[in-house]
Amino acid sequence: MKTKMIKLLALLLCMLLCFGNLALAADMMPPDGGMGEPPGGFGGGPPPGDAAPSEGAIMIVDGLEDTASEYDPGAYSDKISVEDGTVTIRDLELSSDDYTFNGVTVTGPDSLVRLEKSNIYLGVGKPTDGSETGGNALNLDNGARVYVSDSELVVDGAARYVTAAYNDATLIVNNSRVESTGSNENTADVAEPFSNEALLISGTARANFSIGATKTYYFNSVCTAEGWAALSTDSATGNGLDLYAYNTEGIAENGGYSTYADTNCRVWLYGSRLTAAEIGCIISKSGQIHAYDAGAADEELLSLNEGETADCNTSIIGGRNAVMIHAPDMMGEGLRAADCGTFEAENTYLGTSGDLKSTKDYNDYSEAVGAYVDYVSGSVFLIRSTSANINLSQVQMESYNGTLIHSVLNADSMGNFLAAGDAEQISPIAVTMTDMDVSGDIRHEDYQRIMNVDLENTTLSGNIVSGTMESWNETWKDFGEVNWVVDESFDASYGVNLTVGKDSVWNVTGESSLASLTVAEGGTVNGEVTVDGEVVEPVPGETYTGVILVSGDYVPEEPEVVEEVEPVPEETASVEEAAPSGDIMEEAQPTEETTSAPAAETESEEPEANSGSTTAVVIVIVVLVAVCAAAAVILVRKKRK
Question: How confident is the model at residue 494 (pLDDT cuts 50, 70, 90)?
Fold first, then answer.
């Protein structure tokens, strides 16, 4: 009996190992159609192990230098001093052209480290294909607390980070430059991250990487990435993670995004300037981004600031969108995977700039994908198959395609597509504008969700359009099968519920359509309102439902141009040329672009995509473990009998 039990356990162990390999393969293999699931969260995948490396040029473990784990033991000990429990690394000049080289690594809850007036540059001296793990300039893990001040950290090459904070570590950066230069000729064979196709972003490296339950702070600093990500978060654990940027620039030069609030991650911006050639910032599922002026920072936050206090507003500018919100659904769960991202801003500028150009041609994926990117480009907010809470107060918005808020179905295999009736069980897309004067349209084309728009002491000049399943599918009918067109079974249209509050004005500029309209006492609609074909004069406080059409011919005043903007001499303008600095500045003249339906695909159809299966594999593994334990218990009982 003992031999049989051992054989059974061995067999089950082999099965577990096989399923474990399948789980790894599921993470590494994108579904059909190329829209793959990134490992480690949808901001992109962390390096293997999700933890700091065990070797590096300088290793600080539990407050002491661990020379035994250093490449060249004690080579930089003369730059290290310890006083009152604080390890200080000062005037460090560290460089390497080894792709796998790690600079400074700090681990352990007893580690309090200051990296001051130091320069770390990590290049790539010979070709690599990505089979090796790229090294980072600074790693911190397991409760470590690291201060970086008056320093420059630069890392070359794809699939590498400059700063990487794991688990419950804390990183505080002051008056420093953190830069990822992206891929080069020596890392050209390194595969792009799976998140690129899933999010429709480009780039191969992240400057800041924060994961787990970390706390990350940037003060008076510049964080730059060639593409993919500047101030990135990923895969929160526990109560989530927080990233703060005070009077800091986050720049994604040629593609990608400036910051990303992954699930349960919170990003706090105080007088910071985010600029990206593609998307200014991204929110996934329950992620949150809060944007304020520098004066809104509290004393607790400012106690970590080692520089001067600032007096400037936050600005977020994207070449495609300023803010994108989505809710990846890799298992095709629909309603069960539904979630709601949060974006809150006050005294902030949100805009899109046609001068910011991505270096990625999305027609490389398919003509349909390229058309989708063109279709949504220019909208300040892009909301892809998800619910959202958007609260704006004293916010300026400018768009080169004339759209302020645009909801659409998600253009990848992880789009959260609902069934008929599901919309009644999920949160709406909720938009509140307070104390604002903005011009532009609201285009609600996600026919699977309700959108609520509330104007409070706000003037909105533009159209509000409630899309339908028919109008959305019609837009893409000539592209064959694409992921963002479901089927014809969805039997309801959910439009925009608009409330024009006290001292608010809606200046209608063309043809609009609503699901409901409420005009409060003191609110004004400058346009003709018809309900089910009859012209009505809205009674204050009464809510109208039915087929609501509103037409008007209001023409917004052209903004006063303070000074002419010089034409961009090259086809691709740099991020620095398009980004405002300090307070809200005069924006470059918008580039005219069409918002008409995209051109048809003529050659190939987009293949139908599969959903990832990692979660299912994990469940299978758990079940097998339970079966293994049960079998062992039964055999033991039989033996006893």
Answer: confident
Contacts of residue 16, defined as CB under 8 A and 6 or more positions apart, other chains included, come to: 621, 624, 625, 628
Q: Is the Cβ–Cβ distance between 58 and 103 less than 8 Å?
A: yes
Where helices occur in 353-475 by DSSP H, the ranges are 367-376, 469-475
Q: How far is CA 565 from CA 240, 378, 556, 578, 590, in A?
A: 43, 19, 21, 11, 11
C-alpha closest to that of 229 among 268, 280, 186:
280
Q: Report how far Cα 124 is from the mean position of its chain's Cα atoms.
A: 28
Higher pLDDT, 310 or 634: 310
Segment holding 25, helix H or strand E: helix 2-28
Could you give the CA distance from residue 500 to residue 459 in angstroms, rounded to a whole number? 9
According to DSSP, residue 624 is labeled H
Round to whole Å and give the CA distance between 259 and 248. 12
Residue partners of 407: CB distance under 8 A and separation at least 6 = 383, 384, 429, 443, 444, 445, 446, 449, 451, 467
Distance CA 248, CA 386 (A): 29
Buried b (16+ CB within 10 A) or exposed e, 404-423: bbbbbbbbbbbbbbbeeebb
Alpha-carbon distance of 206 to 229, in angstroms, equals: 5
Burial group, residue 541, by CB count within 10 angstroms (0-12, 13-18, 19+)? exposed
- Give me the torsion for CA of 255, 591, 386, 457, rounded to 10°: 130
Using pLDDT thresholds of 50, 70 and 90, give the confidence band for residue 371. Answer: very high
pTM (whole model) above 0.85: no
Alpha-carbon dihedral of residues 50, 53, 59, 64, nearest 10 degrees? 50
Q: Token digits for 631?
A: 């079998």
Please spell the DSSP secondary structure of 38-70, one letter per residue. Answer: PTTSTT-PPPTTSS--S-BSEEEETTEE-GGGB
Q: What are phi and psi of 475, to 5 degrees?
A: -60, -35
> What is the residue-wise DSSP string for 345-386?
EEEEEEEE-TTB--S--GGGT-HHHHHHHHHHTT-SEEEESS
As a whole number of angstroms, the distance between CA 465 and CA 488 comes to 21
Of 178, 186, 255, the residue nearest 216 (C-alpha): 178
Residue 536, both tokens: 């009505």
